[in-house]
Amino acid sequence: MSERLQKMMANFGVASRRASEKMITAGRVRVNGKKVTELGVKVNGEDAVEVDGHLLTQSDSKVYFILYKPRGVISAVKDDKNRKVVTDYFTDVSQRIYPVGRLDYDTSGLVLMTNDGQLANKLMHPKYHVNKTYVAKVKGIPENKELEQLRHGVQLDKKHKSSPAKAKVLSIDKKKETAIVSLTIHEGRYHQVKKMLEGVGHPVQKLKRETYGFLNLDGLTSGDFRELTNQEIAALKKMVEKS
Q: Does the keyword Hydrolase apply (predicted)?
């Protein structure tokens, strides 16, 4: 299947389509050894495309996945204790992918996986305010005043206070004295959700990340993953560009 040269370059993460067009017209791109300076050229998987002398290969192409990380899996590409890591689920993916941010060993849920370093760095930066929703089983039943504390910010340590969060109780179990709480934050400090809930007197017994921005786990079970659609990839990039 053929596609426009600038689209192929964008899919490989060389640059945006518009920036790729400028690279083409500047004479920086060769197709099958011939310099291309006009837009509209189409290429397919059999064509050799060079940008500034670098031959684009499959390992250069940018890929994006959602993984439903089980509990007991490390959010890393390797582990010195030989524990299971998130990349163990992607043995058939040729690109060297890695998790965007981290999810605690004992926390399950949505992890975004990619080899797009530029996008990953933006998504992890607190200034872009990417919301992440967690569902926690906590000890005790939070009262309204404690939920308000979460909504206004909780002191995490001597230096840091959490930003305002969205917090609500989803269900309660009076017999077991536990509750299910939903918490939406945009930061990603170490053990933040656990510290916030413990800070209002409700230690976490079980934790799951259900959403990352507009992405969710619909249709996935623990250990499953899927590739993002082109629309989702574009929306992720637009989300950090607008912030």
A: no
CATH classification number, 3-60, choose in 3.30.390.30, 2.60.40.10, 3.40.50.300, 3.10.290.10: 3.10.290.10
What is the secondary structure of 170-197 as a DSSP string?
EEEETTTTEEEEEEEES---TTHHHHHH
104 is catalytic: yes
Angle 8-86-189 from CA coordinates, rounded to 5°: 100
Domain 64-126+215-242, classified CATH 3.30.300.10, yes or no? no
Range(s) of the chain covered by CATH 3.30.70.580: 64-126+215-242
Report how far residue 26's alpha carbon sits from residue 209's, in angstroms, rounded to the nearest whole number: 45
Query: Any idea what DSSP says for residue 206?
Result: E
Every domain of the chain with CATH number 3.30.70.1560 lies at 131-212
Q: 0.85 cut: is pTM over it?
A: no
- Per-residue pLDDT tens listing for the chain (243 residues): 788 999 888 777 777 778 889 999 999 999 999 999 999 899 987 899 999 998 887 767 889 999 999 999 999 998 889 899 999 999 998 888 999 988 999 999 999 999 888 888 888 887 888 999 999 999 999 999 999 999 999 999 888 899 999 999 999 999 999 999 999 999 888 899 999 999 999 999 999 999 999 999 999 999 999 999 989 998 998 888 765
Give the integer Cα–Cα distance in Å for 100 and 111: 7
Q: What is the CATH number of domain 131-212?
A: 3.30.70.1560
